[in-house]
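Tutorial, part two.
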Amino acid sequence: MKSDIGDRAGSAVVTPVPVPVPVPAAGPGPAGGPTTAPDPAEAVDWLACPGCGVLIYGKRFARDLRVCTDCGHHAAVTAPERIAQLADPDSTEFLAEPATLEDPLGFTDLRPYADRLREARRSTGLTDAVLCARVRIEGQPAVLAVLDFRFLGGSLGVAMGERLTLAAETAERLGLPLILVTSSGGARMQEGALALMQMAKTSQALAQLAGSGVLTISVIADPTYGGVAASFATLTDVIICEQGARLGFAGPRVIAETTGETLPPGFQRAEFLLAHGLVDAVVARSALRGTLAKLLSVAAVEAVSEATGEPPAGPAAAQDGRPAPGPAAEHDHWETVRLARHLGRPTTLDYARGLFDWFIELHGDRISGDCPAIVGGIGSLHGRPVLLVGHQKGHTTAELIARNFGRPTPDGYRKAARLMRLAARLGLPVLTLIDTQGAEPGVSAEEQGQAIAIAENIALMSGLPVPIIAVVTGEGGSGGALALGVADRVLALENSFYSVISPEGCAAILWRTSSAAQDAAAALGIGAKSLLRWGIADSVVPEPPGGAHADVTAALALLGGAVLDTLRVLDGLHPGDLVRLRRERFRSFGTRGPR
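Running the prediction step on this input gives:
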């Protein structure tokens, strides 16, 4: 398979490398499944890995889902095989295959298009390049649409466009998540402008699903290029790439020849895309089924089951529906600053791993970057699906440098906004964890619109129609913190602080010397006690003696209980009331005295 497959999208039949795995028998059936085509590779005992050339025993290769255990190369799989890998046994119900125009242009290049279609159908046992079915994945229902690269390069034509659109409409009608598995060279040239229109048709179908709050997931297999990449494949809520998969609009050969540039290592590969904020995760094929099942469970669970048991004890709810104020720290203000910045304090990822039953981190702003200072994803908190977003520092010098000391760049705030919009579409509560000295103040951040990114997040959160809980876990510095802090309830850890500026910055500006930082901390009233007094925090979450870093397990339990108790209070509020009360909350600051 050439690396310029994206440059010749759908122009010819691409012959797959034989592999010793038979096509699963699905039978055509009344719903229109694939016919069973004999696989000439069934008799092959050994084959060479396309990635590293190592000889692999055929049956072992099949057991490993066509992934080389030596180099990790993910070989191509057919659409029937993919469905068999993902779907629970006996759960597949193929969707009907609607009649569409065939060879609308009477197209002929070196061969008539009609002949190419007949040959593709004979060699694959499929009627076109996509299979659509209702399935269950680890018990979770979904609509699954899988492209097959063997059929004219998995190219997008009128038949595929109609089938994908009907699959999306079925998902919307049944309220089921839609999963797309893509592998394609692009739009089918033999169908001319009608093929081009399928990009708009399928994109429209995905937009309709987004408006209906139906979860959509893409699994990008190698390769996915051209019109497929520039339409439905990249419009889903979550984009997962298989290891090493390529995704792009133009193929690398065209880009290199057009620009005259040497392309960077790994260009358009999954890991390159992840680093540039274009996909959410890179997942090995062996972990794909479990990852999809977890994501599907988010769409299926609407409330915490009583069977899950009681959560860790947290602060009791006050009669007014707000968490009862916990004990506020009596530390010296500078001691609070010191404890809030302690490198041993749990980070957002520590909370994600320690509080959640499972957590899938989602990456990128889908534009240009994946700021490491903000992390986020979907997880299960005591059986309750929650979207988590928070600042991420680290515990060592190397981690702090890698995470930019927890100072977010604009792409970090755009990533947070993307995830919070996803939470709104799926009806998930949002939990934000605040721990930053402030937003990145550099030249590049300003060029990318740092102030605008912060402002847009503040405005977005003010109108998000789902419960939002913000927790100040360490230091909350300036607008860089507030961009994650517009919430229905704000909790503050006992040894945390929230301020318009760092005490050092305040001292440098007003005292004209940073050595007055301790005086500035006292003047600013830094500490959880002050936040509670002014109603900026609704509750103070106690920490273990010595601070959260002294007993991380206990700190996790205390915060987890407080968050669950607060969620229970907010669960009873209508989305419209959530937004109204949230706006009233912030409207009142500065118009009332302390508690």
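The radius of gyration is 27 Å. In part three we will examine how such features are distributed along the chain.
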